[in-house]
Amino acid sequence: MMYQNKLNLTPDDILEKEFKIDTRGYRLKEVDQFLDLVIQDYQTLINIIKKQETEKDELSDEILRLKQQVRDASVDVEIAKASSMQNVGTSNVDILKRLSNLEKVIFGNNNNE
Fold first, then answer.
1. Nearest-CA neighbor of 31 among 19, 46, 16?
2. Full 3-state SS string of the chain
């Protein structure tokens, strides 16, 4: 766990903790100090969880935005491909017409001779 260095106690520390007993029972100050550490750890864990949930939500939103951008880009690529293919087809037709006209000019004169 990467947050262990922020925690005062491990589960084993809590499990193995023994309080000294005096004539009236446990020493209240010692119990209170220990419980203060437990409370701090729980608060730290709550804060870590809240932060990670916020980060998770932000990352999920970013993933959705990126997926939409990928879909939009794919559509743009398909449109560009279709447009390019139309332009290539048009360009080829124009070139063929020009070649035909040139052939008529060049070979048409030869055929008339």
1. 19
2. CCCHHHCCCCHHHHHHCCCCEECCEECHHHHHHHHHHHHHHHHHHHHHHHHHHHHHHHHHHHHHHHHHHHHHHHHHHHHHHHHHHHHHHHHHHHHHHHHHHHHHHHHHHHHHC
The structure tokens listed for 35 are: 């419980």
Q: Each residue's pLDDT tens digit in the chain (113 positions)?
A: 556 677 788 778 887 888 777 777 888 888 889 888 988 888 898 889 899 999 999 999 999 999 998 888 888 888 877 777 666 656 777 777 887 887 777 777 555 44
Boundaries of every domain in the chain? 4-84
Residue 10 is which amino acid? T
Report pTM: 0.51
